[in-house]
Amino acid sequence: MPLNIKVAQESDEALALMLTGSIDSDTAPELEATLADMVHPQISYVGLNMAGVTFISSAGLRVVFKVLKQMKAREGQLLVTEMSPRVEKVFEIVKMIPDLSIFASHQEMDDYLAVIQQRESDEG
Amino acid sequence: MRLNVHPADPVSYVLVNMAGEFERHNVGAGVVHDCQVIIDEIYANLRAHVLPDNPNLTWTITLNPAEDHLEMVVEYPGPFFDPTRPLPVGYRHPAVRPEGGMGLYLMSELSDDLKHTYHRGVNTLTIRKELSSNYKEHSLCR
């Protein structure tokens, strides 16, 4: 069960990733490295589409929590969409759900990120 | 089913084999996921705390599906090492808790019984997961 990470959207202030597969103790470091590489200091919105995530353990939760902490420190947000009930259950057990901005669909998250990008270009 | 796990085996090797066995016994996907999380946490613990001193360690996992429960037995030889201790006295959010403990908390929350024994140089972890109607389920509304 490998982890596939695709960039769904990228701008100066926002990054959205499409995750597919398993975020386990073997693959979580890949996600951590990708985020470390792509989350530049100016990024304050990170979106994770988890529609294709079939498994997550504490190794994956730690990576998600790390980026959540980063975004909070930047007064930004971590956006999550399309978690399966079994993945959501794991987040719920460790009480992380209230800290996440959970979108019902990828489209909804895209629309929100588009607003952020529009704001960037208006300000830039 | 009994599976021997060698140090170079990826987690996915264990998780996929477990899923196959449980699916043969018509265990629901949610329960399979819970069991896989428990085993990933145990494997991560063994890698962090046992394998550095015993890099050739082969451990075993035995899956015993029954009608009303699942039992998973993990055995690893070597010095006493109990990954179920210390059980947290109540979970704290990652923002306020010290490093570590999240995996242990998940293991204890996702299992109905988790027991470690040590006998003649072999650590044995026995995990029980109920399948009956009162099986411990976390409600997203709780």
**CATH topology description of chain A:** Transcription Regulator spoIIAA
Point out poorly predicted stretches of chain B. Answer: 133-142
- The arrangement of helices and strands of chain B along the chain is EHHEEHEE
Strand tally of chain A: 5
CATH topology name of chain B, in short, is Heat Shock Protein 90
For the record, the CATH architecture of chain B stands as: 2-Layer Sandwich
Instruction: Report the total helices of chain B.
Output: 3
- What is the arithmetic mean of pLDDT of chain B? 84
Low-confidence stretches of chain A: none
Strand content of chain A: 25-35%
Strand order of the largest sheet of chain A: 1-2-3-4-5
Per CATH, the superfamily of chain B is Histidine kinase-like ATPase, C-terminal domain
Q: Given the helix and strand composition of chain A, which structural class is it?
A: alpha/beta
For the record, what CATH class of chain B applies?
A: Alpha Beta
**How many E strands of chain B?**
5
Name of the level-1 CATH class of chain A: Alpha Beta
SSE series of chain A: EEHEHEHEH
Largest sheet of chain B: 5 strands, antiparallel
What topology does this entry show?
The complex is a heterodimer of chains A (124) and B (142).
Chain A: E1 3-10, E2 14-23, H1 28-38, E3 45-56, H2 58-73, E4 77-81, H3 85-93, E5 101-103, H4 106-123
Parallel strand pairs in A: 2-3, 3-4, 4-5
Antiparallel strand pairs in A: 1-2
Helix pairs in contact in A: 1-2
Chain B: E1 2-5, H1 11-24, H2 29-49, E2 59-65, E3 69-77, H3 102-110, E4 113-119, E5 122-130
Antiparallel strand pairs in B: 1-2, 2-3, 3-5, 4-5
Pfam families (chain B): HATPase_c_2
Domain Histidine kinase/HSP90-like ATPase (chain B): 21-129
Protein name (chain B): Histidine kinase/HSP90-like ATPase domain-containing protein
